[in-house]
Amino acid sequence: MSLSLHAATIPAFLRMLANMDHLIGKAEAWCEANGKTEADICAARLAEDMLDFAYQVKSTVVHSVKSIDGIRAGVFSPDQSEPPKDFAGLCAILADAREQLAALTVEEMDALGAADMEFRIGDRLVVPFTGQEFLLSFSIPNFYFHATTAYDILRQIGVPIGKRDYLGPDWTKK
Q1: How far apart are CA 67 and CA 75, in angstroms?
Q2: 62-101 pLDDT, tens per residue?
Q3: Which residues make Cβ contacts (< 8 Å) with residue 93, sequence separation at least 6?
Q4: What is residue 130's three-state secondary structure?
Q5: Cβ atoms 109, 46 nearer than 8 A
Q6: Maximum CA pair distance of the chain?
Q7: Does the pTM exceed 0.90?
Q8: Which residues contact residue 63 at a Cβ distance below 8 angstroms, ignoring those fewer than 6 apart?
Q9: Chain centroid to CA 110: how far?
Q10: Nearest Cα to Cα of residue 42 among 88, 96, 81
Q11: CB atoms within 10 A of CB 144
């Protein structure tokens, strides 16, 4: 059995980005019930030296659709932009990412998988990859790291979520 790059990436990206929306909805309800603000959630972090919830959500977009944009451009560099600091802004970037990912074809992903590209941090670090190597060995691990960290931040502050919220409703055989 062979597995296309599209099958190995796009459905999981789409499902988890939708789950990020679900988690934000749970956080919003929790804020209303507990007198907290969106800013409280967006600024929350697991540890002082880690980046906040808003950054974690933004990074799921960066390591899915923006990584594919990087392959197209031949270079991916860390995204230093500020994330949205409210739930509507976070949901908007998630929706935009899902729309772009849903438009990708198997053929386009196959072509991107064979493309040469670089992970670059200025001139001090340049790592060559093929698109497939980059997605499978760099972007996917980062994508799940940031999705899990966003989930963990919400758990840590008391939002009532569990494993089913992380996995989402669409994880079983159809």
Answers
A1: 9
A2: 999 999 999 999 999 999 999 999 999 999 999 999 999 9
A3: 57, 58, 61, 83, 84
A4: strand
A5: no
A6: 52
A7: yes
A8: 139, 140, 142, 143, 146
A9: 21
A10: 88
A11: 14
